[in-house]
Write a structure and sequence with these properties.
This protein has 136 residues and is mainly α. It has one domain: Fic/DOC protein, Fido domain (Four Helix Bundle (Hemerythrin (Met), subunit A)), CATH 1.20.120.1870. The protein is 64% helix and 4% strand. The protein has seven helices and two strands, in the order H-H-H-H-H-E-H-H-E. A two-stranded antiparallel ribbon has the order 1-2. Helix 1 packs across helix 5 (80-94) and helix 5 crosses helix 6 (103-115). It is globular, with a radius of gyration of 14 Å. It starts with 12 loop residues before the first helix and ends with a strand.
Length: 136
Amino acid sequence: MAEDDLELAYLTLEDALELYAAIIDGTAEHAALLLRSRPALEGALGRPASYAHYQNADLALQAALLAHGIAESQAFLDGNKRLALVAMLTFLEANGHRVEATDPKLAAWIIDLSADLTPKQLAKTIRPRLLPLQSG
């Protein structure tokens, strides 16, 4: 098992709907109406914990797997890449980290996931840019 995987916070379906609602400036109920495939979204949300448990994935790889799963599952009618980015950053923040990168760089990483960037490559990019959140 990955170090600390039992202590990590993972995003739930409700979390994803709230994040998507914020992206579209709507409500979670409105977000649910735009959900094309609940099983696809649930699968994407479950990938980080699964990889942590079965493949010893670290935090960076788990974040990359989450982003990739959401971007590629196309669970919503629109805005999947935006949700992928916000979910990845939220997951990292919920687990005490942030990524030091510009907004355009972050967006490019998510777009590249839809081209040919693999989750392992994204994790390799993220890993040295992970910084602990400042407490206090």
